[in-house]
Structures are given as C-alpha cells and as structure tokens.
Amino acid sequence: MRSPRRLGDRLFSSGALAAGLLILVVLAAVAIFLVAQSLPALTAGGTDLPAGFTSFWSYVLPLVFGTVWAAVLALVIAVPLSLGVALFLSHYAPRRTARALGAVIDLLAAVPSVVFGLWGITVLAPFVQPFYTFLSAAFGWIPLLAGPVSGTGRTILTVAVVLAVMITPIITALTREIFLQTPRLNEEAALALGATRWEMIRIAVLPFGLPGMVSAAMLGLGRALGETMAVAMVLSPSVVVSFFLLRSENPTTIAANIALNFPDSYGSGINVLIATGLALFVLTFVVNAVARAVVGRRGGGKGL
Amino acid sequence: MRTGLAITTALTAAAALCSCASNETGASAAGTSSSSALQGTISGIGSSAQGSAQDAWRQAFQQANSDVTVNYDPQGSGAGRTAFMAGGAQFAGSDSFLKPEELAGTFKSCKPGTKAIDLPDYISPIALVFNVSGVTSLRLDSGTIAGIFSGKIRKWNDPAIVALNKGETFPSTTIDAVHRSDKSGTTNNFTDYLNKTAPSVWPQAASDVFPFTSGDGASGTSGVVSAVKNGKGTIGYADLSKAQGLSIAKIKVGSAYVAPTARGAAKVVGTSPVDTGREANDIAVKVNRTTTDPSEYPLTLVSNLIVCQTYADPSIGSLVKAYVTYATGTAGQQASAKAAGSAPLTGALAAKVAAAAATIR
C-alpha cells in the first residue's frame, strides 16, 4: 500500500533525482565533447602532428605508456609505505599519536600539486641527482638503472617519488579506515591462539582488508594517472617508450603533455591534444572498471 | 571718448566671449584627439615572450588615456593568431610572422577585403647559459652548439669544445643539454639559428617543439634556467633578461666570439632583410642568422604585433593605431627594455615601423 505523497517528498525526490542525473549528463557531455573534437585528429597526417610522427597512434601510444609507467612506479613506492603507515596508525600507535599523525597525513593531501612540483624541481631533483649517479655507477648492470644519468635529476623516478608523496595520503587514509573495521572478535581470536601482533595482522587484518586495499590503491592510481602540474614541472619529457629510470630522456604523461603544449597549439594541433585527452579518459575508465571488478569479485562491501 | 570707451568695453567683452567660446571648442577639439575619442577596449592575445613588455605598455598607455582599456592574454603565439583571425582579438602578439596561407584567409576584425600586417615590437637576445664546475667562460660555434643539443657531442672535454676554448680546462662530465619542453618561440628562433648556420649537423627546420627526444626538457624559461642552475654539466638557452646569475657562452659570429647584448640584437634585426612579396606595411623581419659582422648577435628573437591595416570599426582602428604607435615608439621601447630587458627598436627599422603604424586605420 502506498501512502499519498506529500509535496515536500515529491520535491525532494525529484531534486535528488535531478542531482543524480546531472552527474550522468556532465559525464556524457564530456565524452561527447572529447569524441567530437578528437575525430579530426584520429585521421591526422604528418603535418598536423609534431615533427617526426606519422600517425596519431604512433604519437599517442608512447604517451599512454608514459602515463601508465609513471603511475605504476608511483604505486610501487606509495603502496607499501601507505600500508605501513596505516597499520601503524590503526594497530601500533597510541591513540593520541595516531590522531595527530592522521591529521598531518590529511594535511599532506591538501597541498596543491603545483607546490609539490616546485618542491620537486628546486629541492628533490638536485638532492637525488648525486644519488642517481652513484646508483647507476654501482648498479648500472640492471637495465632499468643504466646511464647516462641525467645531470639535473629530473627523471621519471623523481616524478614517481613526487607522485608517491601525493597519493600516499589518499591510500593511507582509506586503508586506515579499513583496518580499523576489522572485527574485534577475529583479532582477539587470533591473539588467543597465541599469535603475535604481526601474525594477528597477517591472518586477521590483511585478508579482511584486501578488497579495500585494492580499491584504495586504484584510487591512488587514478590520481597518479591524471596528475598534471607536478609532472609537467618536474619531468624532462619526450614522447618515447623508455624503461630507463635515470636518464634525461623520459616518457611523458598525457596530462603533462597537454598542459605543456596546449598554450601554443592551434588548429588541428588542438584536436590532436584533445584526442590524447580522450585516450586518458578511456584509460582511467578502464582502471576504474578493473578496480570495481576486483573489489566485487572479492566480496566488496566488507571493506569499503 | 565715451563712445570710444563703450566700444572698447564692448569689444573687450566680445573678445572675452569669443575667446571663451573658442577656448571651449579648442578644449573639446584637443580632447577629441587625445582622450575623449580614445575610449573603449581593445584586446590582444598571443606570445608569452612579449607578455611582460605588453604589461608595461598597457599600464603606461592606460595611465595616459584613462578611458581606454587594453587587455593582453599571453596564451601563446599560435592561439593569438587564430583568435585574431577569428575576430576574437583586435590584435595578436606572435613570435613568428603571418604565414602565407594565413594571409590568404580572412581576418574578421579587419575591413572586408583588407589584410593584416606584422610589425616587429619586441627584440630579445637569446643567451646560451651553462653550469659546468670549473668553467667560467665558454666559446662555441654553431656547429658545436648543434652537436651538443642534438646529442652528438656528449662530454664537456670533447675535442670540438676544447679546440674552441684554448687555455680552459674541461671536466669529463656528461653534457646535459636543457631545452624547452613546452612549445615556444624561443625554441623556434634557436632551432632556426642552428638550421641556418649549421645545416649539416642540424637539418631539421625551425619549429616551436624541440625536434630531438634526447636532452633534458624543462617547462618555460624559468624551468630551463632553474634546471641549468641546479644541474651538473648543464647548458640551455633562455631569454637574456632571465639569465642573471648564470654563466653565458659567447657564440662565433664571423671570426669573433660575441656575447649576447641588447645592442647586438637590435643591430642584427635592423640589418636583416624583410620578407618580400608582402604588402608595403607588412614588416616581416627574417633575422639574418648567418651574419658575419661581430657587432651583431644573430641568436635573437623577434616578436611581432599583428594588426589590421584597416579595421572594420574605425574607432577600434584609431585605438590600435595609438597603442601600436606608443608601443613601437621610443617611449614604449624604453619602457619594455626596462621592464622585460628587451632590445629597443632602433634606426631605420624603428622609422619604418613608425611609418607603418601611422597607416593603421
């Protein structure tokens, strides 16, 4: 049986519906804009592209590679760090310390990326350069670390460190909440069986939090994929596929490439840049879909 | 006597009235030519290289003409030319002059059937800055510069560099050549210089995007300067005005080595040929990169104002004319030299630009 609906109810529900639809409309509008503006670029020939590129795909593929490569390197650095910080906050630190430290980490998330960029070029890059020289001299036989080492330190590894610092707060904040939600009984049962604190975390906390950890990492990855200013400022970019971590010649990311080249582009050059933006749109969409699938399959909802 | 007095009084009064009236018309006439007719807003879009010069000109011009607003948005040369052609801006600032295919198109702000003209308004020498421990002075010829920036010369103690710098000792440090990672008119002028003077090492034509993937890229002039300053064994190119505190290389011109100066930059632009086959007032200077006169510095950037010869709206035309006349005139060029460290237009070229500016309608 349905009770007669009042005016206030109707207004509120239609307002909420409109707000929900608006998100879809905005997303659709962005997608339509990107596709419409990209179409001329997909068939662009040599004259519309920067010198040295023959087709749009040969231009966009290195950019997609660079975007994923920088973000993955950042994740490799940020995920272990964030999990360590989150576990410390949730299971090791005294409550008062945990609260203060948590606030500091949230503050780190509020620093604008341009500030991280400035820090990257003026402090971090000159600081790590001698270390890179040493690393390449000592471990140059590892292909990733082969020279010649960049004289300015503005390499993809430095960018990955900057990105890692930027995404650590997000991953830490989310995983801390997840670890705190571990059922008390599971933890106490593990301890009652004679587990040490680390064993308790391994058998009770981590398995419970796994889907949440995956989705937290994916959110961090999403931020790293789209990060623009810090990469544009710190990286010494080229449109190439290269795995070397310490050289001057680094693959650049889509977002940074757009930021650097848009101001002086015109005509079909703008279409080409927008088409690379479409590629980034699709890429983040795929990453999000994969993340959802992972979380869903592992019985999401328990964690996040 | 009485009548005489009366007549005199009447005459004086009349004269006073007359002078009063003529004063008034005189005042309004003067007003028409200086401030009250100059009223309105003009907007320009374009090169960021001349951005700080434009700021200086706008400020002074708006102070002298309180009813005028001049906007300048340094979005970039390409964006400026596109917006100007589409009618979105009344003038453009561009590091390259109008291309023939652009001249063949239509200009929305201009009177139908008329074309736009280029007027050089900003000259700036580009300095080669370097940071190599133990090296204080550096002399390079264009072939060596091209070798360094294309990645063919990799070490500071390369024989090609040592041969040009007798008496200087170089470390075996790897050369880290820093270029602009964003599109830029500075890169365009730098690559044009290398292409014209060392075509065998640098066959790529001038372009806004640095043509090699090798080397270190940094965004903006400030990015290049900070990368050179903070790096090891670095060399880069940047506007002379932004190169303070860094060592600056001398480049070979003729048989001498020349450091960048405002005077040398102005001189090379003054003696450079103007692209022919254009309208009489279209002054498209092609900088003479291969000059052998050691009082000239050929690694120089010239930025242009792009304006209509005749505007569709005459009131806009008179505003642009006044602004361009000021900016390219002695006072304006001194102002930009002070604010942006540019080289003032001089001599025959300044006179030519002034004559062309006077024909804007």
Description:
Chain A is an all-alpha fold. Chain A has one domain (50-299): MetI-like fold (Orthogonal Bundle). Chain A is 73% helix and 1% strand. Chain A has helices spanning 7-42, 56-92, 95-109, 113-139, 156-180, 184-192, 197-226, 229-234, 254-261, 268-297, and strands at residues 237-238, 250-251. Chain A has a two-stranded parallel sheet with strand order 1-2. The radius of gyration of chain A is 23 Å and the shape is flat. Chain A starts with 6 loop residues before the first helix and ends in a 7-residue tail after the last helix. The model of chain A is unreliable at 300-304 (pLDDT under 50). Chain B has 361 residues and is α/β, with parallel strands linked by helices. Chain B folds into two domains: 32-122 and 270-285 and 302-357, 3-Layer(aba) Sandwich (D-Maltodextrin-Binding Protein, domain 2); 125-267, 3-Layer(aba) Sandwich (D-Maltodextrin-Binding Protein, domain 2). Chain B has twelve helices and twelve strands. In chain B, strands 1, 2, 3, 4, 6, 7, 8, 9 and 12 form a nine-stranded mixed beta sheet that branches. A three-stranded mixed beta sheet of chain B has the order 5-10-11. In chain B, strand 10 and strand 11 form a beta hairpin. In chain B, helix 5 crosses helix 7 (185-197). Chain B is elongated. The termini of chain B are far apart. At the A-B interface, helix 4 and strand 1 of A face helix 3, strand 7 and helix 8 of B.
